[in-house]
Amino acid sequence: MEKQKQQFDEVAHEAMEILFEQFWVLRESEPEKYQLIRERENALRSYFLEKFGYRLIVHRHFAKLEKVPIEPEPWMGIQAFTHSRDYAIFSCVLAFLEGKTIDEQFLLTEIVEDLQGIYPGEDGLDWTNYEHRKSLVRVLRFAQEIGIVKVVDGDIEGFSQTENHEVLYEVPLVSRYFMRSYPKDLFQFASIDEILKVEWMKEEENTGATRRHRIYRKLFLSPVMYSEGVQDPDFLYLRNYRNRLREDIEKHTPFQFELYKNTAMITLPERRARFTLFPDNKGIMDIALQFASIVREQQRTEDIPYQWNGTLLLTWLDFERWVGLCKEQFGYGWSKEHREATVKDTASELFRLLEDWKLARREQDTGAVILYPALVRMIGRYPDDFLKNNEVGESEKE
């Protein structure tokens, strides 16, 4: 039995997926998931440390994998937050909780008063402002969901309507473990880059272990990994050890490893509800797949040369024009929302999606759109029976 716990079996696979997809697993709220991780703790800890350089923490109240990226990406933010103010308030809430003892109870009015005193910036917080109250609602709702505050009585949603609303909270023990520990005080860091570099301060940048940790983090925490040039050390590593990487990834995870000339990624052979996948079932995702087919067609039609790394360079006007072509060709099957939207609005929404999935970006200096090769790895077209039914529908309308 002890030998089995050291091995990567189906239980370990399940536990690994949970640790990657969740910030942490609280024993009180998810005892079964916590037990899975606990049962394969040794095997998981060894694998995460060897391949990613990650620390697995298994506390008697929670389990947590500290997932530090190589570089921050848009999707890594707290999805429930919609304004930079939300993050500032959340940081202030963490500071407020530090001043409380475990199991201590406090009222919403107390934290509201304290936040006004510790919130940074000259403008401060104005609780008569609806948007400021909504920010606090989002923050405390997230704090409750993640488990760093407990609601004893009341509901924070009422604060949206009136600043005099009251809620009773309690400070759970796990609130002390939300923040990572750092080798020096956070005030001594001048930027996000400095915080990320702390991960590598004791290691040589291109030693075998460091490079392996960097590559595994890029593959598992990014939608796609691109070559930065002929001498890119990470891509040379991928090419030299591609068979070993493929064997390891497919043995220990549900993913498959794919390597192309300038692109590397991990993919799932079949859809899994636990993961956030490309494509999903949203209407804009269908448009993205159809746009990919337009990109292939227009690159050939307009004879646009590929850049050295397989990218295409477009002006924003050309990007909007291609979105317009996509609407002309496929728009009859779009949702009502997207059929009625302007091409400009659809282009903006589509670009945000492509940027989040590292399929496109804009140059800061010129504003040009760069389309990455992974965009056309999958394309979307309507099936023949859908096209036939649409033609019948159009003729009937005439």
From TrEMBL:
InterPro entries: CHP02678
NCBIfam families: TIGR02678 family protein
Name this protein carries in UniProt: Uncharacterized protein (TIGR02678 family)
Native source organism of the sequence: Tepidibacillus fermentans
